[in-house]
């Protein structure tokens, strides 16, 4: 099948470009299977707890909160217009009956409740959505747009509310119990060719044997059939494969996530106009309140069946 333009949770993140939009080697059948998980309503809070009942999902605190920071101007907005896409699961997508939903949508709605303002969503294709502020069609962009030298010419960004990570997956029968370089020495490690995950393995796990696969389907099948001892890749991509039908319940995560802020651990933030400090302060205030109250963690559990970061209470490993 022809390759598809996929989303940041499915593939490696190229440096200095949009998080979401690029071409990757992954089959249409895999993409459709991942979307089907959402349309079936499988990722409910109950599902998240049941799939990980013995090891509850641990949601890290992404935001450093300054308790001395002054409150923003709450009267600055009565309505906040968000520009979003509807083809970015699990962050923003349509349900089977056409309703707009997703992690980003739920976070935005919760923020608006805190700020006591009305939330409006304008749905557009990715490229058009990111120009909505410039075209005066929206106040904020919630699409996974990366904060780069180019985008900051016209936009300002909130502090991150999510950061991508990478993890190792192994077969359930594997005796591998951790994922440091010593434990992986001599092991056959897999990654998708040409990705930052493959480069990371080459640079960091030099005593291991690297096997690069042409696409995600081949990489997943390589792990399932034992062609490699462990597979390294984006935490969300691996999560939805592990919990999906194609894995045939073969595999599990091992060890905690790796974070490399220069490459595959790009942050997610909300973009506003470069000179719109009032709105940026409002959104940051609401995001802080979501974290403090624990509401952020509850929203997360509605859309993710496993922890992308850890099997326990430990923090992700910094690669740099």
TrEMBL record:
Stored Pfam families: SBP_bac_3
Gene3D superfamilies (UniProt xref): Periplasmic binding protein-like II
This protein's UniProt keywords: Signal
Residue ranges of every copy of the Solute-binding protein family 3/N-terminal domain listed in the record: 79-305
Name of this chain's protein: Solute-binding protein family 3/N-terminal domain-containing protein
UniProt source species: hydrothermal vent metagenome
């Amino acid at each position: 099948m022809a390759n598809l333009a996929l989303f940041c949770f499915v593939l490696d993140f190229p440096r200095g470009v949009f998080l979401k939009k690029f071409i990757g080697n992954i089959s249409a059948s895999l993409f459709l299977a991942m979307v089907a998980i959402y349309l079936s309503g499988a990722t409910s809070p109950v599902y998240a707890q049941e799939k990980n009942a013995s090891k509850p999902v641990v949601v890290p605190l992404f935001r450093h909160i300054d308790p001395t920071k002054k409150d923003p101007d709450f009267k600055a907005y009565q309505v906040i217009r968000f520009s979003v896409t509807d083809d970015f699961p699990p962050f923003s997508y349509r349900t089977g009956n056409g309703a707009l939903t997703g992690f980003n949508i739920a976070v935005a709605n919760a923020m608006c409740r805190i700020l006591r303002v009305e939330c409006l969503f304008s749905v557009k294709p990715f490229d058009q959505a990111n120009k909505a502020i410039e075209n005066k069609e929206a106040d904020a962009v919630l699409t996974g747009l990366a904060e780069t030298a180019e985008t900051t010419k016209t936009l300002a960004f909130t502090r991150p509310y999510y950061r991508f990570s990478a993890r190792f997956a192994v077969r359930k029968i594997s005796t591998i119990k951790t994922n440091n370089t010593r434990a992986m020495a001599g092991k056959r490690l897999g990654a998708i060719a040409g990705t930052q995950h493959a480069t990371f393995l080459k640079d960091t796990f030099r005593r291991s044997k690297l096997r690069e696969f042409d696409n995600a389907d081949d990489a997943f099948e390589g792990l399932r059939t034992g062609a490699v001892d462990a597979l390294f890749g984006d935490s969300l991509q691996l999560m939805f494969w592990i919990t999906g039908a194609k894995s045939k319940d073969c595999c599990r995560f091992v060890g905690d996530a790796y974070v490399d802020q220069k490459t595959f651990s790009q942050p997610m933030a909300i973009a506003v106009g470069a000179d719109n400090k009032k709105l940026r302060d409002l959104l940051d205030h609401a995001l802080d309140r979501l974290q403090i109250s624990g509401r952020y963690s509850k929203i997360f559990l509605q859309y993710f069946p496993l922890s992308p970061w850890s099997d326990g209470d430990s923090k992700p490993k910094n690669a740099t």
